[in-house]
Amino acid sequence: MFIFKAKGLCKEWNGVTLFENIDLELKKGEHAALFGRNGSGKTTMLNGLIGRISFDRGNVQQFVSSEEWGVLEQDPCVDHSTSTIDYVQSASELRFTLKQELEQIQSQMNSSDQNLLDKYNEVYNKFLSVDGYNLEAEAEKCLHEVNLDESVWKTPFNQLSGGQKTRAQLARLVIQNPACIIMDEPTNHLDKETIEWLESWMQKCTGAILYVSHDRYFLDRTAHAIYELNPDECKRYTGSYSEYRQQKELEQRTQETVYRKQKQKREELMQTIRRYQQWFQQAHKAAGQNDFARSKAKKNVSRFKAKEKELERLENKKVQKPQADKQLNLNLEGSGFSARRLLQVEGISFSYRDTEYLFNEFSTSINRGNRLAVIGPNGSGKSTLLKLLIGKLRPTSGEIRLNPQTKIGYFAQELENLDLDNTILDSMLALPNMTQSEARTILGCFLFSREAVYKKIKDLSMGEKCRVAFLNLYFSNANLLVLDEPTNFLDIDTKEVIEDVLVSFPGALILVSHDRYLVKKVANRFIELGMENIVEYRGDYDSFLAHKDTRILDTDKQNKIRDLELKLTQLMTLEIAEDTEAQTEILQVIRATKRKLSELKKIDKNL
C-alpha cells in the first residue's frame, strides 16, 4: 500500500528552477531518506508534500489522510504560551481539546449555574470515553523516553534549546503514532544517547517515514532507501547510505566505461566514414566518363552512408562523460608555531550563578598535533568548556594560560560571529588588500555563484552560513581551531571536504560534534564530560569506545564485588543455628559466595 505518489513535481524560486520532473513515492512501513546537497530543495520538497507550499507543476496523490501525517521540523511554529508538556499532549488532538475545555469550564463554574454543570458533565463523559485521564501520563512517559529533563516540562516550548525542542517533537510523534512521518534533520542538536534512542525507535516504527538527514551513521542504521534529489530528477537507491555510495560508485565506473567505449567507437566510425569519402572521390575522379567505373565508385557512397546512420544511432544513445560534482575548495594553513604546548588548563572550576559546578578542578593541556574531541550528553558543558578555553567565559576558579604564539580560530554552532547585515562579497572586501577579483575567485572556491555573492548573510541558508563561517576561519591564520558543531547543516559532500581539511590542518584543534563519522576520522584524543567526572583518553575513536565499554564493565564488576563482600560480611556475622541442616546450608552459601568473589577478583587482576 502506498502512502503517497508524487509525479512531475516542479518548484521555482524568484524565477530560478529549484527542481523539476521529480517523481517520488512512499510505501507503508518504508523509511526513505531524501538526500541532496545544500540548496537542492529538500526542505522545500517536504513542505510541498505536507501542503504548506504549493508546487508550480505536478501533483501529489495521498492515500492516507493528512490527519495521519506527523511532522518533525527544524523550527516548529508554536504559540509562545504553550508549555512543553502541553505541546506534547496536543498530539492527541481530541483528548487535548476536551482536556482544555474541561479546565476552562472548571474555571468558570459555580454551584448555581446548572447549564454550565450540565456542559461540564457532557464534556467529562466524552473525556472519560476517550481515556483522557491517561493523556498526561502518556506524555510524561514519552518525555522520559526521549530523555527530556522534568525541569523543563512546564517551560514554554519556544524557550527550549534546539536539542530540547527536537526531543519534545519526538515525544509528540510517539503519542501521535501517525501512519506517515516527515522529519527534517531530526538528529540536529541531539546528543549521542538520544540519537541512538531515535535510531532504535525508528527501527521498530511500523509507520512510513520520509526524512532529511546528513548524519551518515544515522542513515546507515535507519534508511530502507535513499532518494537522491537533483535539479531534474529524484533517483531512488535501495538500501542504506553505505549501499547507496556503493551503487553510486558502480554507476560512475559503468558510465566511465560506456563513455570510453562510445568515444572509441565514434572515433572508429568517423575514421571509416572519412576513408569511404576519400575512396569515393578518388574512384569517381579516376572513372571519368566511364559509366561502369562511375557505378562501381558509387558503392563507397552507400557504405559511408550506412556508417553515418550507425554514427547517428550512437549519438542518440550517447552517454555523457561523468562529471565530478563541484566541491568546496578549502585549505587551512595554520600560522607558524615553534613551541610544543599551545594552551594549559590548571584546576579550573565553573558554575553558572547558583547552579552546580559543571567543572571542578579540571586540568588538561593542548599540544601541537592534538585533535581533541569533547563529547558528552547535552547539558554536560561541552560548549561552555570551549568558551572558557577561548576566553569568552572566565572560570570561577583556576587558570587557563595561552602560549603567546597561540592564535585561535573559533567556529560557534550558533554562527554568532557573522555580521548578518553584510553581503557575502562586502564581508570579503573588508579584508585588508582584498580586491573584488580575488574575492570572487575565493567565493567561487567556497561554492558561492556570481549572483549569490550579493546575498545578505542573514538571508542565507544555514548550510551557506556555515560556509561563510569557514571562510572566516580560512583567513584567521589560526594555529588552534576551536570548533563547536562545525558540520551542522552541511551536506555530506561538503562535510567530507571539511573532514579532509581538518585531518591535514598543521595546527591543533578542539572539536565538539555529534557527527560520529567526523569524530572518527579526525580525533586522536578525547575528553568525555559526564555528570560525575571527566575522563580523558588518547587514541582513535574505536579504541575510545572499546575503552568506554570496558570502563562500564569494570564499574559493574566493582559493584558486584562490593555486593558480594557485603553479603559475605552479613553471612559471617549471623548467629549459627543449632539446627545441623541450617548450619550446613549457611556454610554452603558462604563457600559459594567466597568462590564467586575469588573468581571476580582474579578476573579483575588479569585485566
Please, could you describe this protein's structure?
The protein is α/β, with parallel strands linked by helices. It has 18 helices and 18 strands. A six-stranded mixed beta sheet has the order 5-6-7-3-8-9, with helices on both faces. A six-stranded mixed beta sheet has the order 14-15-16-12-17-18, sandwiched between helices. Helix 17 (541-572) runs antiparallel to helix 18. It is globular, with a radius of gyration of 34 Å. The two termini are 54 Å apart. The model has no long low-confidence stretch (mean pLDDT 83).
Sum up the structure in keywords.
607 residues, alpha/beta, 6-stranded mixed β-sheet, 18 strands, 46% helix, globular
Low-confidence stretches: none
Q: Give the overall shape, derived from the CA principal axes.
A: globular
Helix run count? 18
How big is the Rg? 34 Å
| Main sheet characteristics | 6 strands, mixed
Distance, first to last CA: 54 Å
How are strands sequenced across the largest beta sheet?
5-6-7-3-8-9
Structural class: alpha/beta
Output mean pLDDT: 83
Q: Helix proportion of residues, in percent? A: 40-55%
Number of strands: 18
Strand content: 15-25%
